[in-house]
Amino acid sequence: PGPVQAMVVRVIDGDTMAVRARIWIGQEVETTVRILGIDAPELNGKCDDERTRAAEARAFLMSRTENRTIVLHDIRNDKYGGRVIARVATESGEDLGASLLAQGLAAAYDGRGARPRWC
Protein backbone atom coordinates (compact mmCIF):
# COMPACT_ATOMS: atom_id res chain seq x y z
CA PRO A 1 0.00 0.00 0.00
CA GLY A 2 2.99 2.35 0.28
CA PRO A 3 4.48 4.72 0.78
CA VAL A 4 6.70 3.93 -2.19
CA GLN A 5 9.11 6.40 -3.74
CA ALA A 6 9.13 6.55 -7.53
CA MET A 7 10.85 8.59 -10.20
CA VAL A 8 8.54 9.97 -12.88
CA VAL A 9 9.77 8.81 -16.26
CA ARG A 10 7.01 10.39 -18.35
CA VAL A 11 3.71 12.14 -17.83
CA ILE A 12 1.18 10.47 -20.11
CA ASP A 13 -1.81 12.71 -19.49
CA GLY A 14 -3.43 14.70 -16.69
CA ASP A 15 -4.01 11.71 -14.42
CA THR A 16 -1.52 9.07 -15.56
CA MET A 17 2.27 8.78 -15.55
CA ALA A 18 4.98 6.21 -16.15
CA VAL A 19 7.25 5.73 -13.14
CA ARG A 20 10.26 3.75 -11.96
CA ALA A 21 9.37 2.67 -8.42
CA ARG A 22 11.81 1.43 -5.80
CA ILE A 23 10.03 -1.58 -4.34
CA TRP A 24 12.96 -2.99 -2.37
CA ILE A 25 16.58 -2.19 -1.75
CA GLY A 26 18.27 -2.41 -5.14
CA GLN A 27 15.03 -3.39 -6.91
CA GLU A 28 13.02 -1.11 -9.15
CA VAL A 29 10.08 -1.70 -11.46
CA GLU A 30 8.62 0.45 -14.19
CA THR A 31 4.88 0.78 -14.24
CA THR A 32 2.07 3.13 -15.14
CA VAL A 33 0.27 4.94 -12.31
CA ARG A 34 -3.17 6.50 -12.48
CA ILE A 35 -3.94 9.06 -9.78
CA LEU A 36 -6.59 7.74 -7.39
CA GLY A 37 -9.88 9.58 -7.05
CA ILE A 38 -9.79 11.80 -10.14
CA ASP A 39 -10.43 11.84 -13.86
CA ALA A 40 -8.71 14.37 -16.11
CA PRO A 41 -9.89 15.29 -19.61
CA GLU A 42 -8.57 13.15 -22.47
CA LEU A 43 -5.94 14.44 -24.89
CA ASN A 44 -7.90 12.86 -27.74
CA GLY A 45 -11.20 14.17 -26.35
CA LYS A 46 -14.46 14.66 -28.20
CA CYS A 47 -14.33 18.46 -28.42
CA ASP A 48 -11.78 21.28 -28.56
CA ASP A 49 -12.55 22.34 -24.99
CA GLU A 50 -11.77 18.87 -23.63
CA ARG A 51 -8.53 18.63 -25.60
CA THR A 52 -7.45 22.10 -24.41
CA ARG A 53 -8.22 21.27 -20.79
CA ALA A 54 -6.42 17.93 -21.15
CA ALA A 55 -3.27 19.69 -22.35
CA GLU A 56 -3.50 22.09 -19.39
CA ALA A 57 -3.88 19.21 -16.93
CA ARG A 58 -0.92 17.37 -18.45
CA ALA A 59 1.25 20.52 -18.37
CA PHE A 60 0.30 21.10 -14.72
CA LEU A 61 1.26 17.55 -13.78
CA MET A 62 4.50 17.75 -15.78
CA SER A 63 5.49 20.98 -14.04
CA ARG A 64 5.29 19.26 -10.66
CA THR A 65 6.58 15.78 -11.42
CA GLU A 66 8.60 15.25 -14.58
CA ASN A 67 12.06 13.83 -13.78
CA ARG A 68 11.31 14.18 -10.07
CA THR A 69 10.67 11.79 -7.22
CA ILE A 70 7.09 11.30 -6.08
CA VAL A 71 5.56 9.22 -3.30
CA LEU A 72 2.79 6.67 -3.93
CA HIS A 73 0.23 5.87 -1.21
CA ASP A 74 -2.79 3.54 -1.09
CA ILE A 75 -1.44 1.55 -4.02
CA ARG A 76 -3.70 -0.98 -5.71
CA ASN A 77 -4.08 -2.67 -9.08
CA ASP A 78 -6.53 -1.19 -11.53
CA LYS A 79 -9.47 -3.32 -12.60
CA TYR A 80 -7.59 -4.62 -15.65
CA GLY A 81 -4.27 -5.27 -13.89
CA GLY A 82 -2.23 -3.30 -16.42
CA ARG A 83 -1.33 -0.40 -14.16
CA VAL A 84 -1.60 0.69 -10.57
CA ILE A 85 -3.84 3.28 -8.98
CA ALA A 86 -2.48 5.34 -6.12
CA ARG A 87 -2.63 8.61 -4.27
CA VAL A 88 0.34 10.55 -5.57
CA ALA A 89 2.26 13.21 -3.67
CA THR A 90 5.32 15.28 -4.40
CA GLU A 91 8.32 14.92 -2.11
CA SER A 92 7.18 18.10 -0.35
CA GLY A 93 3.80 16.47 0.38
CA GLU A 94 1.55 18.12 -2.22
CA ASP A 95 -1.35 15.77 -3.02
CA LEU A 96 -1.45 15.94 -6.81
CA GLY A 97 -5.02 14.67 -7.13
CA ALA A 98 -6.26 17.37 -4.75
CA SER A 99 -4.21 20.00 -6.58
CA LEU A 100 -5.64 19.01 -9.97
CA LEU A 101 -9.16 19.17 -8.49
CA ALA A 102 -8.50 22.58 -6.89
CA GLN A 103 -7.24 23.96 -10.23
CA GLY A 104 -10.35 22.67 -12.04
CA LEU A 105 -8.17 20.40 -14.20
CA ALA A 106 -9.79 17.16 -13.04
CA ALA A 107 -13.08 15.92 -11.65
CA ALA A 108 -13.64 13.60 -8.70
CA TYR A 109 -14.05 10.00 -9.89
CA ASP A 110 -14.12 6.78 -7.87
CA GLY A 111 -13.63 4.43 -10.82
CA ARG A 112 -17.25 3.30 -10.96
CA GLY A 113 -19.86 4.29 -13.48
CA ALA A 114 -19.54 6.79 -16.29
CA ARG A 115 -16.62 9.19 -16.20
CA PRO A 116 -17.30 12.93 -16.13
CA ARG A 117 -18.20 14.64 -19.41
CA TRP A 118 -15.92 17.46 -20.47
CA CYS A 119 -17.74 18.66 -23.61
Q: Concise description?
A:
This protein is α+β, with helices and mostly antiparallel strands. The protein has helices at about 50-65, 95-100; strands at about 5-15, 15-25, 25-35, 40, 70-75, 85-90, 105-110.
Question: Can you describe this structure?
Answer:
This protein has 119 residues and is of the alpha+beta class. A 5-stranded mixed barrel has the order 1-2-3-6-5. A two-stranded antiparallel sheet has the order 4-7.
Strands side by side in the biggest sheet:
1-2-3-6-5
**What overall form do the CA principal axes indicate?**
globular
Helix content bin: 10-25%
**On the 0-100 scale, what is the average pLDDT?**
92
Note the main attributes of this structure:
five-stranded mixed beta barrel; single chain; 21% helix; alpha+beta; two-stranded antiparallel sheet; 119 residues
List the helices and strands and how they pair.
Elements lengths: L3 E10 L2 E9 L2 E9 L2 E2 L8 H18 L3 E9 L6 E7 L5 H7 L4 E2 L11
Parallel strand pairs: 3-6
Antiparallel strand pairs: 1-2, 1-5, 2-3, 4-7, 5-6
